[in-house]
Task: structure prediction
Amino acid sequence: MLSKKDAILKAAIEVFGKKGYDRATTDEIAEKAGVAKGLIFHYFKNKEELYYQAYRYVVEKLQREFKNFLRENRNRDIFDFMERWIEKKLEYSASHPEEADFLITLMSVGEDLRKRILLDLEKSQRVFFDFVREKLKDLDLAENVTEEIALKFLMWFFSGFEEVYLRTYQGKPELLKKDMNVLVEEVKVMLRILKRGMTK
Result:
């Protein structure tokens, strides 16, 4: 059974995901969680802190998913690894649509909160970046393609793909499940193009 704090966080993720930060209210979140509004402020000093802790709740779950995935797939080459991780993220988004919708709202919050989240994201993604950087050393990179350029390009690809599919399938988990095989095939093609352009 969920603790009251976790029930509030899960309700916040759903309400923020549907309405965005500005339009979501703590009254709605309290109603969704089945708690008195005052209890929200017992655990979280204000709406901004509630949003941030909801973000941390989602990110920590994703970090656990990634660490488990990394343990099982560490020996794959970087392109195969990224293909399988993107497929895993798509499957996760389809089965946790409220979290996927919540993540779309991250860049629409106020400047101070956005800076706090971006700083935290940078730290959270360090394990992934470090792994990719290490894997790039195994590649025979094309002339004038440095490891740093290859890393940036892969990160842009990964971030851009996530941004597109999150927005396209926002609130449409059944459609995402239906389109899953098509999306995975698209990723394979894109990664083949990247591989040809980066390596000899």
User: Anything to note?
Assistant: Residues 149 and 180 are 30 Å apart (CA to CA). The chain has a mean pLDDT of 92. DSSP finds ten helices and no strands in the chain.
